[in-house]
Amino acid sequence: MSSLPSSSPVEIDSIESLEKFPIYEDLKLKFEKAEKNNDLVYNSKSECEYLTDEISGMKYELKIVDALSLRPINRPTEPGTKEIETKEKIDKVKSKNPFIKPEPELTIVDSLCNDYRVILNKYPNTEEHFLVVTKEFIQQDTLLKPIELQIIYTILKNINSSNTDNDDEEKVKFFAFFNSGPESGYSQFHKHIQFMKLPGNFNIYQDDVINGHEHYIPNDLNDSKQPLSEKNFKFRHFILPLPTDFKNNNEFEEILSTMYITLIRRVMNVFKEYEEIDKDFKFTGKISYNFLMTNKWMMIVPRRNAKFNGIWQNSLGYMGLFSVKNDKVKNNLMDTGISNLLENCGFPLQENEEESKIVYNEYSY
Predict the structure, then answer these.
(1) GO molecular function: any one (predicted)?
(2) pTM
(3) From residue 133, how far is each of 20, 72, 153, 352 by CA, in Å?
(4) Alpha-carbon separation of residue 127 from 41, 134, 226, 249 (angstroms)
(5) Residue 96: which of 189, 15, 234, 30 has the closest Cα?
(6) Are 251 and 213 within 8 A, CB to CB?
(7) What domains can be seen in the chain, in order of their start residue?
């Protein structure tokens, strides 16, 4: 029988220890206790609708999440503006930073691989919505480090293989996402990676896209295999299948890092390419993107706008998960249309696109 998580600090000093840590058990009990004690803002009775977009065929979930109207926004600049991230603005953000000293009631792991914490989201979209945050302040628009990619994968592998006590109960599937850059839809400027579970019996298109494809990494544009995508969708996105296992720690780090940088290069070139298409669009060198991951695949979505028609959008919409704060926003979303929203927040597919026109090496780093 499970016991409540210990009140003493939990420290995990390595990836190997993280692999063995009963993260789902602690997460579940911690969330239940925090919800009972009103330490987080969550309404478990939110009604969900499951719909299909008429244009793209995307299946999506739509629900009202009351906590969204209370969730604080703490960032140095507003999306869609040409504001400069000055030291004064960043210092102001740091002074209101909720992640520097997270609430003990919401903390699952006090120290992870020395530099990180695992905490519950105080304003969750779903049950057991949690975050990995850096202990020290690091900006959200920095690249994911190799250790961060390893942490993401290890948590997902761990939690997706051990999240039910009942053999007859369908396993809950978690995914991770990272909103980076001023137009990515993030609300907190302190670096954080989010983990959420998918709705039960909700089939995600990425699994269908990678079906039948083994792990590979495109070397360049002459490679016969390029990143995968769902051809019916109107927004640019790139998906790569992950291997089912790794031979050793060196391969683990190298493959995840190479896959991520491969996707980042695609994003950088989408920005550069779009500058040639839309003369009003200027690529300043700072990219925005949504990074999504399960233990089966990685995906990246270049982002042009954080919101469209007044509707704020982060990674979740590109998973087919739409949360709105009230009926007014819900009606606006339905009037705008899912495909229209995702296309205008991302980058549109061009007719007769020829990937061979893009040169990636020019922007590698």
Answers:
(1) ATP binding
(2) 0.92
(3) 20, 17, 15, 41
(4) 11, 22, 36, 32
(5) 189
(6) no
(7) 11-78+85-363 (3.30.428.70)
